[in-house]
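Quick question: what would this complex look like in 3D?
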Amino acid sequence: IAGITQAPTSQILAAGRRMTLRCTQDMRHNAMYWYRQDLGLGLRLIHYSNTAGTTGKGEVPDGYSVSRANTDDFPLTLASAVPSQTSVYFCASSDSWANEQFFGPGTRLTVL
Amino acid sequence: TQLLEQSPQFLSIQEGENLTVYCNSSSVFSSLQWYRQEPGEGPVLLVTVVTGGEVKKLKRLTFQFGDARKDSSLHITAAQPGDTGLYLCAGGMGAQKLVFGQGTRLTINP
């Protein structure tokens, strides 16, 4: 059982380029989340989806978009990357009323 | 402004010592979770507490949820080098969302 997979593992990107971070889960969880993790700031929610076909904005949504066409996949797109989007990005999923979340291994993104 | 404040942010102690990490907020949470994160990996859930005053033990780790469900603590007894890592608390909000503290980076020296 893989749980949650993320791709790529790391990426260096020129500012202004478009980038999609991929996230797939095989646990059939309804809810999925994208976070960014920056030193001293912990994990901040970018976007979330409570179920396939619906998405919502988190704490830091600007510059990012998501889609949830099916239960398993939740891609995160940076339409025009900027250096402040340099971070480690984590995808997570949950299917419990207490919202216990399972995290992927992360994608380390550097925007130059 | 951080909704959940963790303290201390950094802690380095010797093997065998005891320690407590705190997670505080002015908000009430439906649940409080603690995660541990190793370098290069995603956070892994340690425990969930849901009832005010609840205490849970996981081997040498003791977790407590405050009576008013606004704060929590993690106490480690006789710390070992394997306890080294980043500890994150997270509070359950509405609409199936969590808000995370900024983390406590713990180093246990042999």
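Answer marked as accepted. Chain A has a mean pLDDT of 94.
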